[in-house]
Amino acid sequence: MTENVSTEALHKRPWKYVGYRGFCDFVVSDNDFFVLRRFSQLTARVLLALQDELSELEEQLQLLENHLSDPASPDVHNGSLREETSETRLELIREIDKKLRAYNELVIQHSEVRSRPRVPEKDISSISNWFHNYENAIHPPETSYIHSHGDLFAVVPKNKTPLRRLLEQSSHFRLWKLWKKAPKIQDENIHYTSDQRIDFFVGMINTTLGLIMLIVPLWLLAFVGKTVNRLAIITAFLVCFLSLVTFTTIARPFESLGATAA
């Protein structure tokens, strides 16, 4: 990671030779490692505060307009923006505009962040292992974000099928040499895998199982005479096929049903 630095010096002063430069090299080397916090609780607090401030401004505007439209009040044109004579109302609307923009922007931004899937435990472990291998390279309080498991999101999430997520729970599967690819940074502690190879392998499993679901019942029906038995075979394989599509692909429920019906 750092040239012309002895291993002993690297381990004694990682905060000098590794630091954020080394950590950023690691983080950007693979999308799985680029993980941040949502700050969901803080965002909720800010949104609730903005909501309350807007409610107060709304009440103030309502009270002001009730006063301006009161028969006992001086005649004021309440139906024109160009001929507005109430400076108080203008200031209120300008303040509402600022608060409302901040509120809406934060709602939209946070809804996008909240919609991202949770970070898999294996990716959190990878980052935690880097902090462990390069202890004190990053100031410890600044690494505490990685412990907020439920509040983490990947900047560039990978859309993986349930089957692939199941297979990747096995460290033997993840570390299989067949998936290994050339590292982007020189670090013997980091194992990089090829998404293309894994996806191709999972795709081959899907194709094989799909062919079995389609071909096997045809042969079974050829040797079964009774209608009830035929219906039982067709029903069983339809259920299996639907389960297969749901489990091995990222298709939505109606798409899975459509594929099964076809």
Automatic annotation (TrEMBL):
Domain of life: Eukaryota
Protein's recorded name: Uncharacterized protein
Organism: Lindgomyces ingoldianus
